[in-house]
Amino acid sequence: MTIAYDDHPDPEPEDLHRWTERGFTVAEARRWIDNGFLLGSAERWRGSGVYTPGDAYAWRTAGLSPYTVQPLLRAGMTPRDAVQWHELGYSHTEAAERHLAGERPRPRRWWRTLLGHRPRKSDTLTGEQSATMRALLRSGVPVATGRAYLDAGWRDAATAVPWARTGLDPAQAAVYHSIGFTPSEASPLAEAGHDGFELLRQWWDAGIPRTEVPAWAVAGFTPDDARHARDAGTTAEHAAVLRALSGQSAPKPPEERN
Question: Contact 72/64 with Cβ under 8 angstroms?
């Protein structure tokens, strides 16, 4: 059987050495070729956030391209979702918006078309946001979580990835991050039921400077314990030593934190 590669008139894909020169392993190249992709198309799919040929093939079959798939990926949709929404008369962009809002595919009522549509936010990501989203997806962060972090203002990939991988709500993560906790420190606190905003209030009410909170908290002090220890002459540096001994890194000065 002859495979039509990307509907290209030339049925022959590029030689494997061309693929390996562009960063593909031989195994990856063979899988893309077996699914009917030329090198340039495979690169475009990977650049859009679709990293396996099986997924790219499914999205292509659903009528998407590397240039149109990102809104659906950000909404956490599958190729099957795209087909279901499209068959019911929704554009891909509108389907992504409705899916992200929690709606299920259902027939469009004709009277809704008479009322028009409410304004939508732009589906276009900035270059920085796109790079961060790709980094989040490559690290295994679910699409919906990655989009939530972007919408919450997390722009720098190096900072967003470790926090998003904790699974914390992005607003909670932002609070823990602003106080000075690391992702590995904040995650168990959140799992234990601590709310970042309430934690911040408790420590501030106790008179503990924000930059000292992680050292005291990770070392096992309550806000009241830390206040009494400070009154007795124990410093945050001592608490930082206990923090380091607990397996966490010592707190960095504010200008050195991400």
Answer: yes
Q: What digits encode the pLDDT tens for the residues 201-246? A: 888 888 888 778 887 787 778 888 878 878 877 665 766 665 555 5
Structure tokens at 95: 């389907």
Q: Report the SS3 class of residue 4.
A: coil
Amino acid at 186: A
Q: Are 84 and 169 in contact (CB under 8 A)?
A: no
3-state DSSP call for residue 122?
Answer: coil
Q: Kindly state the greatest CA–CA separation across the chain.
A: 82
With tokens 């799992």, the residue in question is 191
Q: What is the mean pLDDT of the chain?
A: 77
* pTM (predicted TM-score): 0.46
Distance between start and end Cα atoms, the chain: 54
Structure-block tokens of residue 225: 């314990």
CA distances from residue 5 to 8, 55, 79, 205 in whole angstroms, order as listed: 5, 16, 20, 65
User: Which stretches of 167-217 are assigned E, i.e. beta strand?
Assistant: none
What is the full DSSP assignment across 117-178?
-------PPPHHHHHHHHHHHHTT--HHHHHHHHHTT---HHHHHHHHTTT--HHHHHHHHH
Say how far apart CA 213 and CA 225 lie, in whole Å: 12
